[in-house]
């Protein structure tokens, strides 16, 4: 199966999951995760019609996406990996969506860069649903207050929430928690689910799923 067939398979599974969850067809966006793959590997996926992609590292994305975006201007690029403050200017310049706002320092730096550059990438707050010390993300119990800070003090229009559940746990409760927090914050966008669990995420209300290896193959 080539990369375009794998993309078609993932899209079919997304549509089937929408139907199974009694959700409207097309309500879930596929973010094709192209981290570690070069432009030559990404072009066939763009040629097959995919327009939304995710990258983990700002520096890696800078090496391939400016050219790819020139070739296909309507491509939408998401940052789905941790953002360091020294990369905030580059991230605001390159990405259309930043999914990993996870602490006050980053929120302030991103707000300042958006003002300076006159550019407004859409923003998600990452929630550390498993309270894993090695993982980025705001604690679930601090999420509502953090969203308020972003909105009211920093003037950031947060669009949604994102999470990465612990690898060794059932993802369902984590997806349910994120959906509950999103509703509490009045947010309709929920980024959750990866290659191994995106169908479960759709059942719990994901608006976008981040799928890499099921499309591009093993890294």
From TrEMBL:
InterPro entries: Ala_racemase_N (IPR001608), PLP-binding_barrel (IPR029066), PyrdxlP_homeostasis (IPR011078). Residues 19-218 form the Alanine racemase N-terminal domain. The keyword RNA-binding does not apply. The keyword Repeat does not apply. Its cofactor is pyridoxal 5'-phosphate. Keywords: Pyridoxal phosphate. CDD domains: PLPDE_III_YBL036c_like. GO terms for molecular function: pyridoxal phosphate binding. Gene3D superfamilies: Alanine racemase. The modification N6-(pyridoxal phosphate)lysine is found at residue 35. It comes from the Bacteria. Belongs to the pyridoxal phosphate-binding protein YggS/PROSC family. NCBIfam families: YggS family pyridoxal phosphate-dependent enzyme. PANTHER family: PROLINE SYNTHETASE CO-TRANSCRIBED BACTERIAL HOMOLOG PROTEIN (PTHR10146), PYRIDOXAL PHOSPHATE HOMEOSTASIS PROTEIN (PTHR10146:SF14). Pyridoxal 5'-phosphate (PLP)-binding protein, which is involved in PLP homeostasis. HAMAP family: PLP_homeostasis. This is Pyridoxal phosphate homeostasis protein. It comes from Sinorhizobium fredii (strain USDA 257).
């Amino acid at each position: 199966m080539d990369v375009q067939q794998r993309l078609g398979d993932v899209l079919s599974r997304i549509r089937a999951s929408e139907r199974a969850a009694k959700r409207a067809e097309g309500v879930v966006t596929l973010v094709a995760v192209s981290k570690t793959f070069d432009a030559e590997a990404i072009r066939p996926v763009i040629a097959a019609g995919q327009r939304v992609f995710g990258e983990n590292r700002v520096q890696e994305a800078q090496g391939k996406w400016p050219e790819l975006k020139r070739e296909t201007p309507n491509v939408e690029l998401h940052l789905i990996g941790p953002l360091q403050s020294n990369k905030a200017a580059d991230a605001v310049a390159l990405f259309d969506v930043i999914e990993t706002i996870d602490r006050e320092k980053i929120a302030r730096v991103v707000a300042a860069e958006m003002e300076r550059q006159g550019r407004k990438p859409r923003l998600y707050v990452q929630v550390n649903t498993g309270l894993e010390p090695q993982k980025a993300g705001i604690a679930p119990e601090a999420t509502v207050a953090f969203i308020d800070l972003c909105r009211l003090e920093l003037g950031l229009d947060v669009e949604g929430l994102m999470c990465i559940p612990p690898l060794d746990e059932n993802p369902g409760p984590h997806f349910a928690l994120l959906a509950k927090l999103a509703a509490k914050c009045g947010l309709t966008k929920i980024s959750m689910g990866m290659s191994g669990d995106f169908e479960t995420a759709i059942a719990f209300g994901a608006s976008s799923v981040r799928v890499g290896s099921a499309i591009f193959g093993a890294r």
